[in-house]
Amino acid sequence: MAHSRIVYLVDDNADYRFLVQQVFTLFLPEHQVHFFADGSQLVERMDALPKVSRPDLIVLDMDMPQLNGLQTLFLLKQNPDWKAIPVVMMTNRDQMEIRRKSHQLGANAFLLKPLNLLEMRNVMTQLCAY
Questions:
Q1: Distance, CA of 5 to chain centre
Q2: Number of structural domains in the chain
Q3: What one-character DSSP code corresponds to residue 9?
Q4: 58 and 109 in contact (C-beta within 8 Å)?
Q5: Beta-carbon neighbour count of residue 57 at 10 Å?
Q6: Residue 93: which domain range?
Q7: Nearest residue to 60 (alpha-carbon basis) of 82, 26, 37
Q8: Any idea what the CATH number is for the domain that residue 107 is in?
Q9: Distance between CA atoms of residues 6 and 59, nearest Å
Q10: Which residues carry this modification: 4-aspartylphosphate (predicted)?
Q11: What is d(CA 119, CA 43) in angstroms, rounded to the nearest whole number?
Q12: Residues of 10-20 as b/e, b for ≥16 C-beta within 10 angstroms?
């Protein structure tokens, strides 16, 4: 059995969060996934967590209200308690400048959002094995 992971997914699209939830329920039940609608919710949660309860992986959408993906990534990587947590940026737009900025700020990977259940299963399975 694979090592159980705690994954935080930050995305303002409720339909996309539902798709991810279905993937974890059906194909990756050994892992825990927690959802946040924007970066400010994630930062608030991270501030409240003891170090031992930190996630194993954070998946950030790029386009969100309040704190977007790049702003959230910046905050995560500036905090000494959070900067070692792997962060994967996901977006519908494959723009080289956004990709470059994500890596510059410390993202571990930059992926285009999978658009169907099968693609999502494959991506999330690979991410949880990371």
A1: 13
A2: 1
A3: E
A4: no
A5: 21
A6: 6-128
A7: 37
A8: 3.40.50.2300
A9: 11
A10: 61
A11: 28
A12: bbbeeebbebb
Q: Tell whether 80 is covered by a domain.
A: yes
Give the β-pairing of 57-61 and 109-112. unpaired
For the chain, the farthest-separated pair of C-alpha atoms sits apart, in whole angstroms, at 39
Distance CA 111, CA 101 (A): 13
In percent, the amount of the chain with pLDDT more than 90 equals: 71
How does pLDDT run across 33-90, given as a tens digit for each residue? Answer: 999 999 999 999 999 988 778 899 999 999 998 899 999 999 999 999 999 999 999 9
The amino acid occupying position 26 is L
Please tell me the pTM assigned to this model: 0.92
Percent of the chain with pLDDT over 70: 98
The pLDDT confidence band at residue 1, using thresholds 50, 70 and 90, is very low
pLDDT for 2 beyond 70: no
Query: Residue 102 and residue 116: Cα distance in Å, rounded?
Result: 24
And the tokens for 102? 């994500």
At position 23, the amino acid (one-letter code) is V
